[in-house]
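Appendix B. Chain record.
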Amino acid sequence: MGSHAMHVWAKSTLVLVTTMYLFFAGLPAHAADCNPKELPDGYSSLGGWTIGDPYSKGKKYAMNFACKNNICDRFYLNRFLYHDKDGCAHFVSTDHVAIPVLNKGENYAFECSRNGKWEPEIVAFVRTTDEEYYTQIIHAWGANRDREKIEKITTQGIICRNESYGL
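Structure tokens predicted for this chain:
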């Protein structure tokens, strides 16, 4: 990967970390234990991330990787509603998609770029490698905040950071 691409990834990682810090800064320590109760159909969140600037004046969104009965097979798009008195964020789900269950050598990637531009709305289903970036993208989805929908998108031009690289 060239130095320009490395610079783009370093900058996008800093933006992601800063965004997550700003979103959760000032919340009580136990707020990290909040589990979204708004996921329908008995699903619970395995984890999630904010999309875009959490302090913008517009609507705020997050995506969750969700499981039911130990089977993780959905992504949810959620619109932020409010923080309660304990600092827990409350969301309403606006859409979800069924996703393939992982097999050996496969993973989901959440830090992706398309044509060299980091896009926090993209989630990809990838073939794992020991490389710093996943380039074998099997499926990809994007959160369309205007429509409040998750849409399947082309995999062309998408690469994703391997969060396990170097561990």
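Further analysis of this model is presented in Appendix C.
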